[in-house]
Each structure stands twice: as C-alpha cells, then as structure tokens.
Predict the structure.
Amino acid sequence: MEHVDLAVLRALRDWRAAGRRALLATVVRTWGSSPRPVGSIMALRDDGAVMGSVSGGCVEDDLIARHVHDAGIPHGPPAFVRYGVSADEAHRFGLPCGGTLELLLEFDPDAASLADLVARLDAGALVRRCVRLADGAVTLEAADRPDALACDDATLAATFGPGWRLLLIGAGQLSEYLATMALFSGFAVTVCDPRSEYRGGWSVPGVVPSAEMPDDAVRAFRPDRRSAVVALTHDPKIDDLALLEALGSEAFYVGALGSRRNNDARRARLAEHFDVGADALARLRGPVGLYIGSKTPAEIAVSVMAELLAAKNGVALPPAAGVAAAKAMLEVSPDGAAHCGVEPLR
C-alpha cells in the first residue's frame, strides 16, 4: 500500500495527464472534533472516482453530488467550502458533535506541475507546494523540514514528503506479520535477508526483497527522517551490521528484537568493538516494542508496530510502557523479592 498522499497525487496526475477534469480538495481548517486532520487531501474525477478522503464519507458524497451529478466541476480559481457549521449540517455530513471543517478546492490542477511534484517525491525529496489562490498557479520548492500546512487569504502552502518506509532485517515469520501491518499502515516495506533459506519462504506481496548483506542494504535504503529500521534475526552477525549503519542515519526509529540480556550485550558490543557513541546507542530501541504480554509472532508484531507508530506520530510514551521497564517491574513481587527464572526472547 502506498502512503495515502502519494496515492492521491499519483491518481490525480494520471487523470489530468489523460485529459480528465478533476479537483483536489484539501482540509485547511478544523474546529472542534474532525474526522480527518488538517492537510488531508482527496482527488475527485469528473465521473465520480475518488482517491483519498477528507471526512468519514458524507462530505465526499456531497462533493460528488455537487461536482459530478449536479453542476459538474467548475472552471476558475480555487474556492473554499465549509461543512458542519450548524448542528444540522454536522449531523447531515456525519461530522462529530460540534465538528466543522473547511476545504480548499482546486479545479483542474496543472498536469505538468503534478507530474513534477510526483517525480520529486519518488526521488525522495521533501517538497513545498504553494498555491496562489487568486488564480490557482502552483510553485514547487525544496523544503528542509515537513512544515505544517499554512493557508491564508492569498496562499496555500503544503509540504509533501516521500512515503513512510520500513526496512526489516530478517525474513522470518515475525517479519511477515510486521510487514503486513506496516503495509496497511501506509509504509513501503523492504525486507533484507542474505540467508536464502529464509527468503525462499517469504509470502507477503508488495514487499521489496533484498538479498544483500544488511549493512549494504541499509546504505542502499538511504534511511531518512521518514524511515524506520528494525532488526529481527537474533543473529548478531546480521543484526549488528544493519544497526551500525542505521544508527548513523536520520531514521526516526531504529530497533532490535531480543531479550534484555541480549540487548544489553548488543549495546556493550557496539560500544566496545565498533566505537558506537552514547548518543547513537541512546537511539537504539531494544527490546523493541511495547509491553503487552505478547508471546506469539503476531502479538509481538502488534507490540512493535504500536511503538513504531507512536514514534512516527510524535507520541512520547512513558518509559514503563517499554518491554524492558515493564518486565523489570513485574519481576519484583509486592514484598520486594525478585522473581527468578529464565527470560524468554522478549
């Protein structure tokens, strides 16, 4: 599955290149509760085909009724439209109680500009798209950070970046569950495993396979601020190679599976034998995931995906939510005595 913004822009590019009339709707303001955040986009073709969303569905239905079944897609400069101003409208359009959203509609966006934008995004660039509201003219410029959408009476400025990406090291069963969850969460997924016996059993479509050595795979992947790297093999000869490269990158999330003992040993090994500094080691998440009592590969994948999404969305989780801290707390009985036993892999 593609990142939803890229999917919308690609569809709109193709429609306009084929000569079809279309509009681009962008959520520019919300008041109260809103089903979709500011910056959400949707493309509508002249025959009613839709890509993306700006609400739970009812606003989309109204846009189709207005611009396909009734008057059609108008010509002219961009226009604002607001939904949910009254309680009756909020009920009619399926908005949460008190919710109001405002859209900017661009009619027949320029095909050449859309093609240029998508090409830049496919090349991994971060791009700011500025729309002059007086006439709909679009300019594209390089951006150095993913700024929030800005809209005033003269200009709409939205920053688009390459899709979220995930590199998994190891093609085992856990990787299959995690890759599947990442795909339907909007990530482009690459799985690297130099071991042919593991790659041969891979069964998740839509994932890019790699047989390179992990350090080479990370370099080829070129992790940026919208990338995550997770090592899942339990084999230091494989995982450590990937982590050495990933910890020196801009990846927003770098993690490794394993028990607390194995992760402590990994950190010591990386520091002693590979001169990985304290700041880089502080970025390493391990044992990876949130503590939910997970035991099976599917449950562990849920745990890892939850932590990864929290990091992507900028949510600061309490330390006790992590696997290591939670297990340390559980090992101490109410009277202060430590429990004994062999720790599993997580």
Remarks:
- The chain has two domains: 4-160, 165-330.
- Residues 44 and 50 are 5 Å apart (CA to CA).
- The longest helix spans residues 297-312.
- DSSP finds twelve helices and 15 strands in the chain.
